[in-house]
Specification:
43% of the residues lie in helices and 24% in strands. It has 120 residues and is α/β, with parallel strands linked by helices. The protein has a single domain, classed as DsrEFH-like (Hypothetical Protein Ychn, Chain: A). The strands form 2 sheets. A 5-stranded parallel β-sheet has the order 6-5-2-1-7, with helices on both faces. Strands 3-4 form a two-stranded antiparallel ribbon. Helix 1 runs parallel beside helix 3. The protein is globular. The two termini are 22 Å apart. The model has no long low-confidence stretch (mean pLDDT 98).
Length: 120
């Protein structure tokens, strides 16, 4: 199976694209691929429970449902530390979530280690 990195920069301002990133990650996990997601920019806001619970994309479904499936499937999730800080996303927002704060160098490492990189 392949290793896939999904780099997400779309946030709540673009619910369809944001939800699509997690729907595609879910599809990859369901197919048995090793999936990593790196959320940067406005996408870091997707990790807040209020956003996870309310965001629904047009034709791409519930963010919460896809997020839960991605997590259950063992995908690795990273949130840009700088983007998170700039948007007020704190450790409390990630409590109980398997998400790690990371710097841009981690994104580069993940991209170099992946067979495929998708960006949303």
């Amino acid at each position: 199976m392949a290793t896939i990195l999904i780099h997400v920069t779309s946030g709540p301002e673009n619910p369809t694209r944001a939800a699509l990133s997690f729907l595609v990650a879910k599809a990859a996990v369901d197919e048995g691929h090793e999936v990593s997601m790196f959320l940067a920019g406005d996408a870091t806001q997707l990790l807040r429970d209020a956003v996870l619970d309310s965001l629904v994309g047009l034709g791409t479904g519930s963010l919460r449902e896809s997020y839960d499936a991605v997590v259950a499937g063992g995908a690795k999730l990273y949130a840009s530390g700088m983007s998170s800080k700039a948007r007020g996303v704190a450790e409390a927002d990630l409590e109980g979530k398997p998400v790690e704060f990371a710097m841009p160098n981690r994104l580069v490492e993940l991209a170099l280690q992946s067979d495929t990189v998708l960006t949303y």
